[in-house]
Amino acid sequence: MSEIKYHLAQLNITRMRAPLHDPIMKEFNDFLDPVNKLAEESPGFVWRYTEKEGEVLAVFEDTMIVANMSVWVDYPSLKAYTYDTVHNYFLKSRKKWFEKMDSHQVVLWWVETDHTPSLSEAKKRLDQLNQQGVSPSAFGLREMYHADGSPLH
User: Residues 8-31: pLDDT tens digits?
Assistant: First the structure.
């Protein structure tokens, strides 16, 4: 019997200050495709959500919410892409384009390697984190867990 393997899934959402094609969103919008391509070419990348028509609105019920969901082999791979590439510039500059939200904007959880998470599933994990707090099945970047549920320090 083979051991079940896991990958790290992540969802991050944010609320735009203006519609994506508004001039204040130009820099972000211009680099959206290249930064996503960089993610896809990064070591440890497994899969990235690409929006189906109206799906983000249907799940989050807000036309200004944008969602990014991806799956990575492990946390070091996700961390390297997030903080050690041009992506970090956009992370540090996010106040130019996005509003501060009162709830968690990022949730991580482990998925079996043959499972592709849905946006609805990801929102349930984010809701779980917001309503019940950190757990091995829905956590953030400050308190993380291994796939076996043990804390990652």
Answer: 999 999 999 999 999 999 999 999
Tokens of 72: 């990575």
Burial of 138 (0-12, 13-18, 19+ CB in 10 A): buried
Q: Of the candidates 37, 145, 49, 15, which has an alpha carbon nearest to the alpha carbon of residue 86?
A: 37
Stated length of the chain: 153
Tens of pLDDT, residue by residue over 81-119, are 999 999 999 999 999 999 999 999 999 999 999 999 999
Residues with Cβ within 8 Å of residue 58, at least 6 apart in sequence: none
- Write the burial class of residue 38 (CB in 10 Å: 0-12 exposed, 13-18 middle, 19+ buried): middle
Strand positions, DSSP E, 5-137? 6-16, 45-48, 65-72, 98-99, 106-112
